[in-house]
Amino acid sequence: MNSEEKRMLMLKNTGSSFFDEAYFVLRDNVMKSKIPETQLIKEANRIVNESYISGYFNNPKAQKKNNTYERTKFFLGGFAMGIFTCVFFYLIFS
């Protein structure tokens, strides 16, 4: 068994509508370099604020755009399958 000690940074109240808390496991070289805790917290906050999930769930326009894109893909796929089916039956029965 490997019994390593890991340091962890925990952020509460991230401001995300999806996550309440975020956990960051620090690398060994970070612990040895004596980086100030305030700098680690700033970096963790930056990651949470710039994350795809945080931006997606806090931005209703992103949800609407993605939903429209998914519906368009579904419609075009169904339309193409309908044309393919019509051509297939036309070739078979004519």
Rounded mean pLDDT is: 79
What percentage of the residues does DSSP assign to strands (E)?
Answer: 5-15%
User: SSE order in H/E notation?
Assistant: EEHHHH
**For the largest beta sheet, what order do the strands appear in spatially?**
1-2
Number of distinct helices: 4
Number of domains: 2
Runs with pLDDT <50, length 5+? none
Q: Tell me how many strands there are.
A: 2
Distance between the termini: 72 Å
**What is the alpha-carbon Rg in Å?**
25 Å
State the main characteristics.
two-stranded antiparallel ribbon, mainly alpha, 2 domains, elongated, 94 residues, 11% strand, 4 helices
Write the layout of secondary structure elements.
Layout: E1 8-12, E2 21-25, H1 28-33, H2 37-50, H3 52-57, H4 60-93
Antiparallel strand pairs: 1-2
In short:
This protein has 94 residues and is mostly helical.
Textual characterization of the structure:
This protein is mainly alpha-helical. It has 2 domains: 1-58, no CATH class; 60-94. The chain is 64% helix and 11% strand. The chain has helices at 28-33, 37-50, 52-57, 60-93; strands at residues 8-12, 21-25. A two-stranded antiparallel sheet has the order 1-2. The longest helix is centred in the last third of the chain and has 34 residues, at 60-93. The chain is elongated and about 80 Å long. The termini are far apart. The relative contact order is 0.11. The mean pLDDT is 79.
